[in-house]
Amino acid sequence: MAGIEFTDLRVNGSRLLQRILALADIGAIDGGGVCRLALTDEDRLGRDLVVSWMTDLGMDIRIDAIGNVVGTWGGTDPSLSPVMCGSHIDTVRTGGKYDGNYGVLAGLEVVETLAEAGIETDRPIAVGFFTDEEGARFHPDMLGSLVYAGGMAIEVALDLPGIDGTRLGEELDRIGYAGPHPCPGVVPHAFVEVHVEQGPVLEAKGISIGVVTGVQGIHWEEITITGQSNHAGTTPMAMRHDAGNAAARLAVAVRDIAITIGGTQVGTVGAIDLQPNLVNVVAGRAVLSVDLRNTDSAELKRAIDALGAACGEIADTEGVAIERRTTADFDPVDFDPEVIALIEQTADRLGCSVQQMASGAGHDAQMLARVCPAAMIFVPSVKGLSHNVNEYTRPADLEAGANVLLHTLLKLQAV
Ligand code: HGY
Ligand code: MN
Ligand code: MN
Q1: Alpha carbon of 181 to those of 64, 154, 336: distances in Å?
Q2: Atom of ligand 1 at shortest range from CA of 361
Q3: Residue 201 lies in domain
Q4: Near ion ligand 2, which residues have CB within 5 Å?
Q5: pLDDT digits (tens, 9 = 90+) for 287-305
């Protein structure tokens, strides 16, 4: 089938949207969002539904030791490595319908479109969903694709602690997705992920397709502050070792570090857990998360060093102990120039407005980029919202992104 043009081939946008909405019913929360934290029962039900769709499409389904699921379809020469697409179907607690889910279901839509048209591809087409991409329950993020790409040993991954006191391997067994296939996984010929932008750029510029050139560096820490619990009424201010106040100062410091460094630097304290977390007790302990990101690794290092200085200063002046644990540490990633160029040409040929851009969010494609040529396709997020129940992307944009994926994969699979 090498090089044959299928210029008029298009996906079925309403079928794609129906699958997105059907999957979003699993773990649905108030406000139209979704909560399917990795390896929870909701995640299992979502997995089961997507696997049933893969089965209906006649795909060869492989589940690996970290629970990644890859469906493979077609290919006249099975000795050829597959062209792969996909993303994730786990969500954060206040997730939307599209983050990750869209990339997986667009891949299934591509397969169904090819099957309906009776097209036989040279290379097999693989569609994957990776375990714990969000990293919200088990740090780091992009965990499943990191293990798939050989970036973390399976034994280490299975032993990771959850924020809820669980162990990853036990939860994977519990939901029945500890698969027989080994990690690292099959190295694809190329990997293309379509994803909602999760930011404001495309919508603000009125552009329908983003060609993603790379992903910024990501650094996560879990910081434990140990002070002394004491009576809120009887303890003079000068005698306090207040872990709550230290945590609050550190959260402000993270924000100030990001603003001072500027550029693409961002800093977030998304989780703070105080103990005993009571109105009349000076907090004896605080555990907080820190998320630092920058497109430039030297600047990200500056931010990490500044965080260390802030911890030292706060520990001294508050009389508390501060312990830092790095839970994610990924350099910035540049995607493959040829795949980037192919996506851009394909979008242009399909009549889409298109621009190149970097990704602020982490994605599975950044891990697959370690083993094969990879790049991403973005579609606009209304109001730039994501990790928010009001996350929304217009059906026409979802369809356009899936068509760009279809024709990009058609080019990549031809030998
Ligand atoms: O953390 C991230 O950027 C992604 O949502 N996992
Ligand atoms: Mn995502
Ligand atoms: Mn996400």
Answers
A1: 4, 12, 28
A2: 3
A3: 13-216+333-413
A4: 99-100
A5: 999 999 999 999 999 999 9
